[in-house]
Backbone:
């Protein structure tokens, strides 16, 4: 079932924390809401669930205006941030909670609880209390509880934030599997973790300061970001302040060949180059600078090089012979691997 924000604005005490959000999640789509703390992600979710009332705008589910409906009549499953399970209830009763609230017949509750626990791999834990479970298992129960109501729309608010990196990547794979089993369920997935968004989402909506900054497929946002904020939030980015020239862009004394996409010569702009697309040594779009920092990361080396007063990061396959601290090195990148952004570094975008 589709989820649509139609110019939704939410304010607390006159403070706008969600500003005219327009966004549509297609039926069966996984949309990640990605953004820094306080950008309005949870608020957007709460507006869909019905826990907060928009000051203006409408929320539509499957084309139906639900703005005035109470939460339990919206057909939504939600996993809240910090997945609050009821500590005094066994796993099975936690999972049954939403069904009881909806006055589902008892016999049906039993079947649905079993099904939801089965899907999340928690069938063997039905009689336990939350305190007898690991963090990852509690997480699964929270998801089972949301699935038990057979929602057409699933809202997940940082569902994996309490887990360590290993468990998180396991749960990510589980969520992807769950979605394959429930292909019609639309998922709105809040995270501030770009890896989660890149891995799981069909599209990513980037939030910043109560506003939607950009929305697109992970690939679009990664390969062709439209603004500096999105570039640095979806993946790592070198953001270089350049001046547009007749044939490309200039950084310090270096003349670079890049697609200026019609920007006027003389204009200030930001050049986005992904660190893993920066090479060491001579090549097209050569930059020279001083090595300020070398980090060995197992399979890669990250070089921090100061170029004309600006930091440039290069992620390189592990170097046999890494340059010394303070050495002068040349870096390069292919013209097609750079994206020119209109906004200046340090301007309104930061
Ligand atoms: N009940 C409330 N009363 C007043 N202000 C609130 C309330 N809930 C949220 N806010 C404010 O609204 C803004 C957006 O909050 P929200 O919870 O949507 O952010 P978020 O993007 O989910 O952040 P995080 O990543 O930290 O969870 C914040 O500045 C927050 O302080
Ligand atoms: Mg939040």
Residues:
């Amino acid at each position: 079932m589709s989820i649509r924000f139609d110019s939704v604005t939410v304010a607390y005490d006159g403070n706008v924390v969600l500003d005219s959000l327009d966004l549509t999640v297609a039926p069966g789509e996984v949309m990640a809401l990605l953004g820094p703390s306080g950008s309005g992600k949870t608020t957007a979710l709460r507006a869909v669930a019905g826990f907060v009332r928009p000051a203006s705008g409408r929320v539509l589910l499957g084309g139906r205006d639900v703005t005035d409906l109470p939460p339990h009549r919206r057909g939504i499953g939600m996993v809240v941030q910090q997945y609050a399970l009821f500590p005094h209830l066994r796993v099975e009763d936690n999972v049954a909670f939403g069904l009881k609230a909806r006055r589902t017949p008892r016999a049906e509750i039993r079947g649905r609880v079993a099904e939801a626990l089965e899907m999340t791999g928690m069938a063997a834990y039905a009689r336990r209390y939350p305190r007898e479970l690991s963090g990852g298992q509690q997480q699964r129960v929270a998801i089972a509880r949301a699935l038990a109501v057979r929602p057409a729309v699933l809202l997940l608010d940082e569902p994996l934030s309490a887990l360590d990196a290993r468990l998180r990547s396991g749960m990510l794979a589980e969520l992807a599997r769950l979605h394959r089993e429930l292909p019609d369920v639309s998922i709105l997935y809040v995270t501030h973790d770009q890896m989660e968004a890149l891995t799981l989402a069909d599209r990513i909506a980037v939030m910043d300061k109560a506003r939607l900054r950009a929305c697109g497929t992970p690939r679009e946002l990664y390969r062709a970001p439209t603004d500096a904020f999105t570039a640095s939030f979806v993946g790592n980015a070198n953001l270089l302040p350049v001046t547009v020239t007749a044939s490309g862009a200039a950084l310090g004394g270096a003349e670079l060949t890049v697609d200026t996409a019609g920007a006027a010569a003389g204009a200030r702009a930001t050049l986005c180059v992904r660190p893993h697309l920066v090479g060491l040594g001579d090549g097209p779009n050569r930059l020279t600078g001083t090595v300020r920092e070398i980090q060995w990361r197992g399979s890669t080396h990250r070089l921090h090089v100061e170029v004309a007063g600006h930091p440039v990061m290069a992620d390189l396959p592990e170097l046999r012979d890494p340059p010394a601290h303070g050495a002068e090195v040349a870096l390069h990148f292919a013209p097609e691997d750079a994206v020119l952004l209109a906004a200046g570094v340090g301007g309104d975008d930061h």
Q: What stands out?
A: The first strand starts at residue 3 and ends at 12. The helical segments are 41-49, 91-101, 106-119, 135-148, 165-181, 194-200, 218-223, 228-233. The domain at 229-349 is CATH 2.40.50.140 (OB fold (Dihydrolipoamide Acetyltransferase, E2P)).
